[in-house]
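Internal QA ticket QA-208
Title: Verify multi-chain structure generation after dependency bump
Assignee: T.L.

Test input:
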Amino acid sequence: MTALAKLAPAATAFALLLLAWELYARLGGIAPTVLPAPSRVLAQAWENRAALAENTLPTIRATLAGFACSLVAAFVLSALVDFLAPLRRALFPLLIASQTLPLVAIAPLVVLWFGFGLLPKILLVALVTFFPMMVALVEGYAATSAEISQMLAAMGAGRRRIFWLARLPSALPYFFAGLRISITYAVVGAIFAEYAGAAKGLGIYMLSAKNNFRPDLVLAAVAVSSALTLALFGLAVLVQRLAMPWEKAGRDRRAEPSERRS
Amino acid sequence: MTRLELRHMRKSFGALEVLAGVSLDVGAGEFVSILGPSGAGKSTLFQLLTGAIRGEGDMRFDGAPLDGARFAFMPQRDALMPWRRVIDNATLGLEVQGMTRRAARERVAPLFAEFGLAGFERAWPAELSGGMRQRAALLRTVVQQRDMLLLDEPFGALDALTRAAMQRWLEGMWRSHRWTALLITHDVREAVLLSDRIYVLSARPARVVREVAVPLPRPRTDSAALAREAAAIEAGILDTLLGQPTPINDHPMENRND
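Actual output:
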């Protein structure tokens, strides 16, 4: 099956949903200030493309900066925790607690403490994206085959050598699973931070569009943020393919039962 | 010349006694097998040898107390790293010893043909068949150029046909290289085919219940007469393993008994 054929059912379902929405909005007698038709959202998005683009860039910047910080922190902390078991027991309850914080309440506070600049956005994006990657990495290290570790030790490799040669590569599939989850939270995290207070950004744009009774522009911004998330997700999948070429080799072999023999 | 000497090796995990005083010798260029029921503590013995765990008893190599770095260890299954190409799996031990990746590749590459892996240097382990994976794992083990090979049930996970082919292949390789080797197995036929001597272990807690010499000429897969003699030795070992009383020294092939 080609990639296009695989996409067909999802594309059809999406198109049908849009069509139903369009018909309901047009024929149901609903005011466009309540529920604008998709065609109107699209037209308004095009008309306001300059403003949308101007507000999308800061969101992308906040998302990427926050995600990069989160990635580095997850890697460093997970490696530390892997070497120091007591640290793991000290940190994990705190990390789990951090995931219970309601973002709605935390976002305005973080803006209050750190101002309207980039820093509070980075912090909030990191807060929502850090945990899945951290947990995935720590579990991935633990999934290292005991036989590979024992063999490396018998070869004379020390603890650090084993980490680089075996534990980190073993964690890669887990890491990418965590990354794919994280990255879908990242844009939402940035928008939340902007919603709580920002000069520019999709979050503040949505807020002002809502206050001006322009649900069409709110939805246009929502569409942009969805597209951003999907693009980042696709990028993560692409990076995973490039970083783990052996995965594809394994899949191809399982898919094709004829044995390559020497 | 005796290279490895183990005397009265004991090991318990808490209240569970695994090894109850195992003694054995391996001479230079000798292929010795440890044969025992599953869960008898055979792998524990290897963990003691590689220093993964500590136990009681005396371990000597060439007469001196064992200081590690003597063994090239091949674990159960193949333990190939799926994220390294076959050649980079083969060089792993050399890289850990501090050799650069390029130098290690140059050392290993000429051996691929002998191990039936020519053309698969750049393949991923997932692209190899089971037998090829085992040969790659053995290649990774022997290129380390340690004094002795420790093989922990290397063919246990293979299908019967591949296993038989691999056993024949390993016998051929051993005849041309004469590695000093200690093999763990629960396959009686494999032990008799490959070994100069066999230590038969009891169920846990393990002790040596019998030492069997296999003075058959090599190669051992060629003649029907050899196959009959091998079968007789196998039957004797099976009797011991299954707990049937076997009179000591009832067979001309068994000339050394503990």
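Spot checks passed. The domain at 1-70+148-258 of chain B is CATH 3.40.50.300 (Rossmann fold).
Status: verified.
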